[in-house]
Write the structure tokens for this entry.
Amino acid sequence: MRPVVVLGATGSIGRQTLDVLDRLGVEPAGLAARRPSPEFAELLGRYPSALGAVAEAGPDEAAAFAGTVSQSVDFGRAAVEEMAGWPGHVVVNGIVGAAGLASTLAGLRAANRVALANKESLVVAGPLVTAARSEFGGELIPVDSEHSALFQCLEGEHPDDVARLVLTASGGPFRGKRRSDLTDVVPSEALAHPTWEMGGRITVDSATLANKGFEVIEAHHLFGVDFDQIAVVVHPQSIVHSAVEFVDGSLKAHVGQPDMRIPIQFALTYPRRHPGPGAAFDLAAARVEFEPVDRDTFPILDLAYAAGRAGGTSPAVLNAADEVAVAAFLAGDLPFLAIADVLAGALDQVEWREIETVDDVAAADAEARQVASRLVKGLPITAPQR
Ligand code: MG
């Protein structure tokens, strides 16, 4: 295995990646975190040969942090991107949010393997990421469980033989509820995900199915499949991680324990597999159910399909508006059902543009945040002048 750098090392994906690396007996070559936290200092202490990078730190914070660790640490977003671009590395991108895009691009431009857990890279800038992959010859191996499943089901298959990608969704904590049941939902209810242990935003995104919508866009770019050929089905047990339907009526599904360490390890060791980290899966004890998505109760899924089909800046607008709306919901400033209204409003109000550069994405992101914040506060939208 090539040396590994872990971006977003203190987050859920980062920590699970380090667990996988520990089991493989591999020391990370670099660790990056957003902030100079005691948790990050502790990780750097555990891996003294890893170099460090911190994205956001003032000069005093940086100096204080550097004094608490033995290895060299670089500061600033450029330092994280530089680490992603170290040639000959596997880059695990576990950065949360659109901030992960620059590192995905830096990794691909260095022809690295990018083990991608940062789905926003593909959601907000799919065309830029896939262009960088083909231009520089880097690899993009999905870590998102559904996409890892699809990637594995597509191995050895001809693109023309694929009829549909079928993404599974657990349905989240509100599966089976109707709109009227969700009027008074509080954050702790939305954060109670039945099967996956994840961060706050993605857990709320699972409750609204926004996460599944983003995954549809992610799958479209990753595998070059039309939106009409991507389906979503609810599967509460989360043991069928996704499936591919072929033109002859065959269906290949990827089945296993819901344990993110399995797709993380696969992305690191691909095309080989290594023992662990998952326990043997007992098929005889498994119960498997599927049901259609309730699209009235969870309208954000269709908003995501619409944004994906519109292309350009629309998916970036959807993503940025969702970050704002979810943060407002978690702060108690926005009702659960109004998250969808903020997203729909932002898609409507922010002018559609093509994306040709990362700056185009950043501009759409900033504008969408402004519009979404005003929508959250119930303020009228004032069109920004450009
Ligand atoms: Mg997923």
